[in-house]
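SAMPLE LOG
Freezer: B-3
Tube label: C17
Construct: single chain, 301 aa
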Amino acid sequence: CSTFSEKNTEMLVKLLCQLVRDKEWHVQHGGLLGLKYVFLGSERKDYMIENNVMWLFGELLTAETDDDVFSSAVENVILFVENHMLQKIPSDHLKFIHKRIWLVLSSLSELHASIPTCMSIIKLMCGVAQCNIALGLDQKLSKLLPFTCHPSQKIRRQALTAYSAVLGSMLNDIGSISKEFWLKQCQFLFELALVDQDPQVARDTCVIFEVVVKEAHFTATNDFNRCLNHFLRLATFSDYSPLNRNDLLFYEQLEKMSSLLSAPNTKGKSKGNSRRTVISFGYLPDRSPISVRMDIGLCLA
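STRUCTURE (predicted):
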């Protein structure tokens, strides 16, 4: 592409856009890859703006789109935005993509390859004035929360980073949301810090927990006291104690991380039972009980 004349480059971009609009997924995918290489190889980027390629990418961000096509579309969005194109892209195109990402997020399967890229787009666009969309803070956090207990450690980390970025960009909206919502957020974050074996996830969760507690301005209501009693009860469990549905309010969601939360083998267990996944208080070697106690101690403090 670097050897093409400006006229030929413009013609090529228009042709590739036609391929992206095709009904066949493999033709769409080829068009998206072509646009990526043109963008990387051409000195002029204006052709992409003039041909509304960002809007074209946004149209592909639906649950019905083929996974490979969807992944290529979001990767191209990231590529364009990260290469200093944000100020040149029309705000209505950015808002369109931002809105599409939030709409489709809940329908992506756990194995969808584009989840990390979607999290990156959310992080890049939140707080940018020309990307603002009419979606409340509570709605955004509710959509992100399931990904914070995703089986993939990488996605859990990225989801918490996106959660923190969205929360930080809309701090002024916290007071307009019910205390009940924030108490549930705190309950989930506390339980996530309690059971996740990844030290980074636990640290990031504790930081978010502290921000929520500070900004929500809780008062000692009956709901708050019940929540605090729940935290204190969990904090006093003995090392390696198994935690079940009676102990954790969000057991079913946290159980999604089951492949990462197997309790250590103990004497007297049969081989068959040792394969059964158990959520427990503390897990060696990454998160010992003392590490868990330090993190939940930070939350209680």
